[in-house]
Amino acid sequence: MHIPDGFLNAGVSVATGAAAAGVVGYGLYRAREELDEKSVPLLALGAAFIFAAQMLNFPVAGGTSGHFLGGMLAAVLLGPWLGGLVLTLVLLVQCLGFADGGLTALGANVFNMAVIGTVATYFLFRGLKAVLPRRRPYFLAAAGLGAWLSVVLASGACAVELALSGTSPLSVALPAMLGIHAVIGVGEAVITALVLSVVLAVRPDLVRTYDLPGPSAVPVDSEVSR
Amino acid sequence: MEARKKGIYLFILAGFLVSAALALLVSPWASSAPDGLEKVAEEKGFIEKAEETEPAWDSAPIPDYAVPGLTEKAVDEESGEVVEEPTKLATALAGLVGTAAVFLIAWGLALVLKKRDRKGAVGVS
Question: N or C: which end of chain B has fewer CB within 10 A?
Fold first, then answer.
C-alpha cells in the first residue's frame, strides 16, 4: 500500500510527515539505549528480510496482489521503536532506490506502515499478550492477530488520508481498502507466526518481546549434566 | 555465553542467505497484479491522479525493482503491442542488490545510533 505521488494533498502530506518525523525521532532517541551487540545485527537482518519479503507479491482475490508488510514481525523481534526504525529504513530505500512510493507521500507511508502498522499495533499486541495464557502458541496467536491488525489499520489510515486529500470519499475508500486488506492481512498473520515460530525454535533469546516461561533456550537435561 | 554470542552471527548469516535467496530466486515469479491500494485506485477511478503526476523523485537507480538495461520484447496483454519489458534477471538482480544494500545500511545506521561503550567498561565482560 505504498502511496504514490499525486494521491495526497499538501496538508495531508505535511501533517502525516510531521507526525511520522516525531515518532521516528523518538525511535532514534530510544535506539541509543536499546541497541546492543545482539540487536545491531538483528536489526540489519530484520530490515533485509522485510525488504526481500515485500518484493514477493502473492495473488489474492479478484486480480489483486498483496505482499508482506513486516511491521508486527519487526516489533515483536526488536520492540516497537527499533521495529519502527526498520520499517522506516525499508520505506526510505524503496522510495529513493526503487521509486516505490512517492517522495511527497513518504511521510504518509512511514506514518501508515511504521507508526500505525508497527509502533501502534505493537501496543495492541502487548494488550493481547497480556490477556492470553502465557504459553508459546498463544504468543504466536497474539503476534498473528497483531499482524492482521497492522495491515488492516494501516490500510484504514491510508483511506482516511485519501479522503482528507479529496482523492476518494471515505465512504468509498474505507470499505474498499479495509475489505481487500482484511484478506491480505491473513497472509501477513501466517507469515509472521511462521517466521516467529522458526526464530523461537532456533534462538528464542533473539525475540525481545518473548518473556514467557516454558521450553527455554537451555534444555533442562544439559543443566543437570553440567 | 561466549558460544551464544558467536552463534548469533551464524544465525544472522543464515537469515541473510534466506532473505537474499528469496529476493534473487523468488521475486521474479512474484505476482505482478496490482496491490490492494492500486486495485482500489483503479476501481474507484482515482489511479489517474498518480499517472498524471510527475514523480517528485526521478533519480532512483533501480526504478520499479528492475535493473535498467535488461529488457526483452513482449506483447502487452491489453493493447497487443510489442513492448520492452524487464527480464526476470533484471528483477532478480534488483532484489539481490536491494536486500544487500538494506542489510549494510541498517547495520551501519545501528552502529552509529548505538551508545558508545564507556571507556572504563572495555575489557570487562
Answer: N
